[in-house]
Amino acid sequence: MTPQPKLSLRGLCKRYGALVVTDDLSLDVQRGTIHAVIGPNGAGKTSLLNQIFGSVTPDAGSVWLDGRDITDLPIHRRARLGLIRSFQIVSILPEFSVLENVALAAQAKAGSSFRFFRAAARETVLNDAARLALAKVGLTTVETTIAGGLSHGEKRQLELAIALAAQPGLLLLDEPLAGAGVEEAARLIGILRALAGECTIVLVEHDMDAVFALADTVTVLAEGRILASGSPAEIRQDAAVRAVYLGDTC
Amino acid sequence: MRLPPSVPIFLLLAMPLVLPLGAHAGYVFDLGARIAILGIAALSLNFLLGAGGLVSFGHAAYLAIGAYGVAILDANAIHNAAVVVPVVLAASLVFSLPTGAVALRTRGVNFIMITLAFSQMVYFAAGSLADYGGDDGYTLTARTTWFHAKPLATPYGFYATCVALLLGCYLLCRAMVASRFGRALRAIRQDRQRVQGLGINPFSIQLTAIAIGGMMAALAGALLANAAEFASPAYAAWQRSGDLLIMVILGGAGSVHGAILGAAAVVLAEEALGSVTEHWRILYGPLLVLAVIFFRGGLAGIGRPKG
Ligand SMILES: Nc1ncnc2c1ncn2[C@@H]1O[C@H](COP(=O)(O)OP(=O)(O)OP(=O)(O)O)[C@@H](O)[C@H]1O
Ligand SMILES: [Mg+2]
């Protein structure tokens, strides 16, 4: 008997006019693994994450989390089930301090936001959880900085800290290494590897070294369809993949 | 340590209560009560706009709802605040929850227009209340009481009550903005999907904010009716909604106390310019433009370091 997958996609379809971005796509992501999704620009990777996340409704097909059909659930209900994402275009709250950005994630995780009187900034439980996540990504020294003023690299780290503080069961990462320097990338890879023990990760990434270093399974997407799926070693050997994808980038 | 800016504001508002005013007492208490009442209304709009980014162009509807709550109970010989206040707050909820739910389906300019449309509905509905004066409005037979006490009967008592309520609303707004709820509300203004992606429902947070802001403004409306001993459809007029927006923006939507400064500035400017010329709005317009251009962050931003 195979264990229940963390995430299952069944016959997912999405088109914009004549453009098919997701083409009858079915996929299982096993619990506790890092599942990489790679593919050329415009392959439909972000669109796929959007449909799992809930910001885009598929034209057909279904999304299952822990054996439960979540296709019709709004974004916040999915998040409450532990489905958290980071965005390809950094999405932080520019007016909040670094700490408050992460404390909000801790607050959302901790339960009710319907508390009206106690100052949230003085809730040590939330601040402690936030500081823990900031320490993991190495942003401790800038916790009082207004997030809008961070460098691009720091914003990416903050984005990851927000996701960590939300304590995801399933984490969707859209190119978390984009624009990171060699040193930063190495650090982020270390964080992701440590995280893999605690949750399931769907990783969209162009950095092939990172993908092959981290992933348990790699799925190659092209024009909204799965070209190949398998272990990193299998994907490296796959002739079709080499022709379509690895061939023209490496 | 720097004094919070709200302290001098409330000390100033308390001064008429302890200083001998002599012959000017009636005038000062009248003017002061107007500042305090509109200050409450502006605070409530500022809660929606400043914290929530919800630009309501129909907030005056709640003034009319509060005022007509008082008027209709007055016609039924009910004056006790223990009944009047709960009825007024409940009436504001009956309006805010359905209209807010509809308005929140829209964003930006559409949100502004839909709140305006709902307030116009209140305006015309109030004018159609034939039993309560129709377009002419309704004159109260008596002011609101507190069981057998009549704190609103004297100018001093009325002013003191208004300032106390203003202080209460100010402290409430400040606490709410800093609370978990306020943090979620401020976050949604910046990036709705980011917040929703963490598991917070933006719709229920914003609708709750609208309900709270509406109750506070309805309370101001009840006081307004008591001040004039009169309720009129004009309380819901769109010009009044515009005045409230001006108070909030002039005062500085980035701070809670700015709304009180904005209300004071508008009431005092009206008073000063109105005695110079009956066409005072001609002067009032350019003054407003200058104020918005030169006081970034509003009146509350004056003297604050730029950053
Ligand atoms: N809302 C939309 N309306 C129309 N077309 C869209 C929309 N969203 C995405 N597309 C198109 O769908 C295709 C897939 O886009 P998607 O962002 O999913 O690609 P991707 O694999 O993430 O690419 P990249 O590697 O550049 O991030 C692209 O051609 C894109 O232009
Ligand atoms: Mg993409």
Write the layout of secondary structure elements.
The complex is a heterodimer of chains A (250) and B (307).
Chain A: E1 7-16, E2 19-29, E3 34-38, H1 45-53, E4 60-65, E5 68-69, H2 75-80, E6 83-86, H3 98-110, H4 124-137, H5 152-165, E7 170-174, H6 182-196, E8 200-204, H7 208-214, E9 217-222, E10 225-230, H8 232-237, H9 239-249
Helix pairs in contact in A: 3-4, 3-5, 4-5
Chain B: H1 6-18, H2 25-51, H3 60-75, H4 81-103, H5 108-127, E1 138-139, H6 155-178, H7 180-190, H8 192-196, H9 202-228, E2 230-231, H10 238-251, H11 258-276, H12 280-294
Helix pairs in contact in B: 1-6, 2-6, 2-9, 2-10, 2-11, 3-4, 3-5, 3-9, 4-5, 4-9, 6-7, 7-9, 10-11, 11-12
Q: If strands are numbered along the chain, what order do they take across the biggest sheet of chain A?
A: 6-7-8-3-9-10
Widest sheet: strand ordering of chain B: 1-2
Termini separation of chain B comes to 20 Å
The protein's oligomeric status is heterodimer
Distance between the termini of chain A: 39 Å
Overall geometric form of chain B? globular
How much of the sequence lies in strands of chain B comes to under 5%
User: Which value, in Å, is the CA radius of gyration of chain A?
Assistant: 18 Å
Label the structural class of chain B.
mainly alpha
Whole-number total of structural domains of chain A: 2
Which ranges of chain A are low-confidence, i.e. pLDDT below 50, for 5 or more consecutive residues?
Answer: none
H/E element sequence of chain B:
HHHHHEHHHHEHHH
- Identify the biggest protein-protein contact and residues per side: A-B, 36 and 25 residues
Describe this structure in words.
The complex is a heterodimer of chains A (250) and B (307). Helix content of chain A is 38%, strand content 24%. In chain A, the strands form two sheets. Chain A has a six-stranded mixed beta sheet, with helices on both faces. Chain A folds into two domains: 165 residues, P-loop containing nucleotide triphosphate hydrolases (Rossmann fold), CATH 3.40.50; 77 residues, no CATH class. The mean pLDDT of chain A is 92. Chain A is built from nine helices and ten strands. The longest helix of chain A has 15 residues. In chain A, a hairpin with a 2-residue loop joins strand 9 and strand 10. With 307 residues, chain B is mainly α. Chain B has a domain of 206 residues. In chain B, helix 2 packs parallel to helix 6, helix 3 runs antiparallel to helix 4 and helix 6 packs across helix 7. The model of chain B has no long low-confidence stretch (mean pLDDT 92). Classes of the chains: A alpha/beta (250), B mainly alpha (307). The interface between A and B is medium-sized, with 36 and 25 residues.
